[in-house]
Structures are given as C-alpha cells and as structure tokens.
Design goal:
CATH architecture of the largest domain: 3-Layer(aba) Sandwich
CATH superfamily of the largest domain: Glutaredoxin
Helix content: 25-40%
Length: 173
C-alpha cells in the first residue's frame, strides 16, 4: 500500500510542478513580454486622427458626433437618457449626431427605438474600423472627419456636462 501511495504522491507533485510552471509562463508573457505583434493600432479613437466611416457628410456640420453603441451594452442602455438630452440640447446648434452600431441597421433601429432615441442618423460599422475597443464611446469630429474629442464608457454627470458644453458652446467647464 505504501508503494501505491508513494507513486500517487509523486504523480501529484509532478502535476503541481507542471501547473506552477504553466502559470509562471502565463504571468511572464502577460506582464513582461511585449504585446501581440499581430495586433496593430489603438483600441481607442485618437484625437487628431481621421474617422473612417462611410456615408457621413462631414462638411454638413463642424461638429459631428458619433454615438458608438451596441445592442447588448448595458452602459449604452443606461446612458440613453443622456443621449436623448444631448440630442435635444444640440438640435438647433448645427450639430450632426450619428448612432454607429455593429448590428445590422434594422436591428440597430429597433434597439434605439426601444431605448427612446430618435432623430439621429444610423450607420452600421464594426467597432474595430473606428478603433473602438468598447461601448459606449462618444466621438466628436470636425467638418473633415478629424477627431476633436473622445469619451469612453458610461460618463459621470461632470463628463456629460462637458460633452454638452463642448457641443453647444464650444468649450468645457
């Protein structure tokens, strides 16, 4: 019986060593080696970069807002009241607002309707093509499609006020 127990104990010790070596390898790769070289570009829009999205009439306004949302995004849904307020407050301010979602246009229209957002253009685009790593993201671009401001994630009330002030008055608090 003791020989069986010794073999079992040896096997368990070998498995523990293998698991520890594996975890140390993951730790080293994650924190000390450079990122994946096959992934290029930022995961967030950069101020000064040009937005690449089809069928937006950039010269129509010197303030173009892209609300980058997604149907399954809980923070997008939670931020719907702010988006409605933003649409209302910028209505007469020569601000063009476009909702950009990765879902097909019909699905996006249904989602926006469900959360009470109307009066915006809707475009379908993959998030990666906008260098957006997550939703919600608000991108403000000029009349040439060059990014002037970016906000990522669910905004605090101060950030919401900053967005409104920039779009309605041209400056933040």
């Amino acid at each position: 019986m003791s020989k069986i127990f010794q073999k079992f104990e040896l096997t368990v010790n070998i498995l523990i060593v293998i698991v520890v070596v594996f975890l140390v390898g993951i730790f080293i790769r994650q924190y000390f080696l450079p990122g994946n070289p096959t992934v290029s570009g930022p995961k967030f829009p950069i101020v000064g970069a040009k937005v690449s999205i089809a069928d937006i009439d950039w010269p129509k306004s010197n303030k173009n807002v892209l609300l980058v949302l997604s149907k399954g995004c809980r923070y997008c849904t939670e931020s719907a009241e702010f988006y409605k307020k933003l649409i209302q407050q910028t209505h007469d301010k020569n601000v063009q607002i476009t909702a950009v979602l990765p879902q097909p246009k019909e699905e996006a229209e249904k989602y926006l309707s469900e959360i009470g957002i109307s009066g915006v253009e809707i475009r379908q685009s993959q998030l990666e093509s906008l260098n957006v790593g997550g939703t919600p993201t608000i991108i403000v671009a000029d009349d040439k499609g060059v990014i002037t401001n970016v906000w990522i994630g669910k905004l605090s009330s101060d950030e919401e006020n900053e967005v409104v002030n920039i779009l309605t008055w041209g400056f933040a608090n």
